[in-house]
Protein 1
Amino acid sequence: MNNVDRILVKVRNLKKYFPETGGLILRSANDVKAVDDVSFDIYEQETLGLVGETGCGKTTVGRTMLHLYQPTAGRIFFNDVDLSALGERELRNIRRKMQMIFQDPYASLDPRMTIGSIVRAPLDVHTDQSRKEKRDRVQDLLDMVGLNPDFVNRYPHEFSGGQRQRIGIARALALNPDFVVCDEPISSLDVSIQAQVVNLLEELQKRLGLTYLFIAHDLSMVRHISNRMAVMYLGKIVELADRDEIFLNSLHPYTQALMSAVPVPDPDLAESKERIILDGDIPNPSNPPQGCNFNTRCPIAKEICFQDEPLYKEVKEKHWVACHLVE
Amino acid sequence: MKPLLEIRDLETRFYTQDGEVKAVNGVSYTMDAGEILGVVGESGCGKSVHALSMMQLIPDPPGKITNGEVWLDGRDLLRLDENQMQKVRGREIAMIFQDPMTSLNPVYTVGFQISEAIMLHTDMTKNEARDRAGELLELVGIPGAIERLDDYPHQFSGGMRQRAMIAMGLSCEPKLLIADEPTTALDVTIQAQIIDLVKKLQSELGMAIMWITHDLGVVAELAQIINVMYAGSIIERGSVHSIYKETKHPYTIGLLGSLPRLDDAPGTELTSIPGLPPDLLALPEGCPFAARCGYRIDKCFVEKPKLVKVNGKDHSVACWRWEEISGLT
């Protein structure tokens, strides 16, 4: 798929801290380190899967990459342009090429707008097309995502979850973007509908040459759609590699536990599968443990893991890990 | 051996402003003591409503159980009055729910809530019940169980709250534990902990478990028998092995096909099921899946197929064409 191997998006040392205020006079307490020093590349026309559990910062990474959140530190390059160096108008221009599909198809569509005007909104903001051009474009877009173009005058409540997600996809594609952040686009959908939406995303990628960051917590679906995968834990990427490498030769103990915890819809495989059950819960991100932040649950933690933070390094070709115990 | 539970022709309706919602449409099956049953289906298929109906927990109005019998220990639960039913709930059949935050009361301590359930169903004193609650929390693997009895629900994490709910469910040693999507709100590593715990508790205590879920992965490793539900009916039922390996119903085939498998090659397309589940306000005549089914014939739109045994084995399917279809796949 990505025969060119050209880097489209480059993220370097990205940090996003949210100030946590407490007490009567709102004095600032610890920051919540939602994203803490994350670096990775996304190649043109590939899908990078980003997985992790609740609160690990995966959604914040996606939003900060589009500068929907102002990063606390770090840089994001899109086509070698540093987004943090851009003014508001230039940023808005470049955003045409970077779009987002949101998780909740109920909250992300304005209930008082018709789906025609929802899908047309980006065209109104960013282009000076004539009314007819826009109308044709909206019809094409609806057709492209598998909705009847005659539905333009209907309202979101008339559609099911899967259909609403298609509307969200049509809106994201209105301006012919190069890069789309898909933030848990299928988590709120039923199983049989999930497959419809994933197939659509894959088909559109092939047809339009899109690059995706696919954020999800459903590992088997991420494996299905991704070329490479990154695993996050408490604001950091702990491992990144080709998807088969991640599934077959994962090196980080957290990735291994996460993979083994995925339920398999096959009773024979489920029985033969070796499970690593982690103790305890995910620590509070405003007060992460000293040293490696996985040390409270890691089954193989050594002394060094409680003292120093492990470096995120390339241990094999294209396989990055942050763990003291991986050579 | 007599079954622990027998459900016959259960039918539940909701009467709303928009009309009659046919939520459960003639569900019949039996469960043995100590059996782990998985009830699988998508939202609105009636999997939760059928369990709530069994417990007479359907709000009436708008809901009403319009037909059926639920036999437990020689008694039809649907004929019991509220007083008698309260003795069954918690004591003989206990239920745990999806969202452990809303099913625990935020203004009482966890210990109080568990001992309250115990005192309601046994003649233990307050102190005995508290000790028992401590034992139960320990049983479900909460570290420092005795000290944590005085914690409030918000001091527990999601996984711990679900453990506390399980402790409460087990407090009176029920014969049947109904778990309604108990791990859906949890992360995978926490879900693995809970499944591991439930398996362990089941083998120690021997109660029957009904595990309601939309996740075909979870029940594959937990359940012995699976009921697949669609639009308020069981459309396929059988042992775990027969459901996953000798799948007969086109809906189950489609559902399994729409899951990505860990061994599929890059770029393989998922076989999604076209269309949407039917509107329960206007359930079509005939087979509820017909409109989305690739194997449908005219008969499917006219007459609803009954659940029939496949080759005399413990595997049944409700489809007019199952024999032809199993020859095709």
Note: The radius of gyration of chain B is 21 Å.
Protein 2
Amino acid sequence: MDLNPTPEQTQVVGAFRRVLEGKSTPAHVRAAEKTGFDAALWREAVDMGIPFMGVPESGGGSGLGLLDIALLAEVYGEFIAPLPFIETNVAGRLLARAGEPGRALLEAVTGKGVIATVALTDTKASGKQRPIPAGAVAEVVIMLEGDKLLAVKGAAPGAALNNMGSGPLAFRSKDERGASTTVLAEGARARELHSRALDEWRTLTAAALEGLGRKAIAIGVEYARNRKAFGAPIGSYQGVAHPLADSATDLDGAQLLARSAAVAADEEDKGGGPKGNAGRFSVLASMALAFCAERAQRAAHVGLHVHGGYGFTLEYDIQMYVRRAKAWPLALDDPRKEYQRIAGMLFNQPGTMEKWIFG
Amino acid sequence: MDFRLGRDRGDDLKAFRAELREVLARYSTPEARSRAISTGTWLDWDLHREMAKRGWIGDDFPKELGGRGNDPVRMIAMREELDLSGAPWLGWIYARMIASSLRAAGSEQQKKEFIPRLLGGEMIACLGYTEPGCGSDVAAAATKARKLEGGNEWVIDGQKMFTTVAEVASYVFLLTRTDPSVPKHKGLTLFLVPLNSKGIEVREVKTLGGERTNVTFYKGVRVPDSSRVGEVNGGWKVMLAALAEERPGGGRDLKDKLLLATLESVLAAEGKLPDDPVLRESLARCAVENEVSSLLGYRAMWLFGQGKNAGVEGSMFKLFSSESLIRSSSMLLDAVGPLGLLREGEQGALAHGEVEHLYRHSHVETIYGGSSEIQRGIIAEHRLGLPKSR
């Protein structure tokens, strides 16, 4: 076991953190609430290669693994940065996996900073239009329609749907005016590629939620140390301190779980272990999303609650965390549905769970 | 980063686990289990001596103390297999705990005399720390030890609560008050007292989970000064040193046994996993929390193995793990329905009454070894930097 990040990981994470400390302050985040997107921050991120660090070097990225990206996602979550960080990395990696049909689009993404995203649900199967994360700012939207994995290139609408998480959500379709469509893959391959991208999205979103929750607790702790009531800092009362301690514990667990999911993905890429639904990565990705969503929401709630009435005012930052903790995982679906997926993967065959526990 | 620990860390450990499973299975027979259940004593001397013979009690202790000097990671595998086996193995933990305490704070003579006997399966000792009036505030101990004038002897009077395994132990590691005039942490002294001393009475206390514990009474018990462990009034220091020796964390444990037992009974009853989404979610929630719990446990042990202070991480594991067992055992008992209420031995009981038993047992886990409130206090103060909250 080795839980220490490598010196390279520490360095990359530190560089990203320094950018966000300067350009994703609460004031910046508030200024971008309407669009969920900060153009100046995006340009700086593109200059650093942040949005496509997980894309292979042959595709113009930095060739980092999912664990590296997950460590960055934690920081992205901590700063609730108005940046399509997860979407661009997941979409870029998907285009790279798709090979030749995605090459030109990938070059536009990594070469010109064109924003790409992935529609999380099969647009045909769901039968309903769903808001697409980063859909308001993405020129390229990758979508699964039945048997086909399509990359739709169109004009980003710019305006976001007004939404709880202040994310750049928009409805998008291959039928929108002026859009061109590329078929990236068909049949089982299309579903496999999309499913893998979803698991990456689950893992990175889980990591981001963990970072968000950790920051929410830090904000709550800071307040509880300074705010006095009945003659003492409220943090000295167990009724205030203990829920914070519970959440701090949850988030340490959440971090380990999300990171272990990312490591499983990197191991799968290196050719270890079974792939697909029976693989460790898929199970851990769902576990991480279910757990991190639930515990980040609780952490944000606890962080708000210790503020008393002030926590409910828009003037205090904690409300920005509460909204996003709920909104981020819901971009996919009810996070409780992850439990159904986990059950299908671990309990259907006798012996699978035993093997999971004992190796 | 590498998250593999114990479970799949190389062939050596796999072989060790296979050996453990083979031996433990021999002592997890229905007879051994019903003996443990009827007496409440989760210690089978045959198993205990067999583990000692194989060197398993002191596997990671240095050779000069009677141990085997093996890689501590084997103890993680050992603890996991013990928990999952259902064998009555409780002697293992007490023998190790007292041996570690003596290793940390005992005199050379005490180390030589007791550690090899503890690790060799010849004797075990119990803990006499808390008292009827103490609970988690162990340093409030009121059991008195008074040195006889001019003599080399002490007289002990008082009572201790939760002296588990006292009915089969030959010694008690006893926390006493030797100076009531100073602040409570400064007037404590520890003794290793033979349980067959005159004036000691062991009385059974039955518990919800079926495990037997005891209240022990000490009336005019005389012990030589050589029974003292550490300095006079240095008892708190001894306890801290012993605590620092204790390996924090854990891994796969009773919660995994709970999940497997529930799954087994569901599959046996239905032939396949039912489509019921409520049942599926309950099982999956347990699997997710078990994953988190084992990761927190492995992390604490890994940090400790790196020579780092893993006190907060150990508290996080203890808190999460024990609270999670309560949640999961409650949820899964509901999930298996009314047949789950039948106890072991009853016709139609599910998975040998395992789910029913673990639900009853779960309640003690958030209390002993430092209650959840104690753990939250440690985390709030030492991780979050909040003021001490008591």
Note: The first helix of chain B runs from residue 11 to 26.
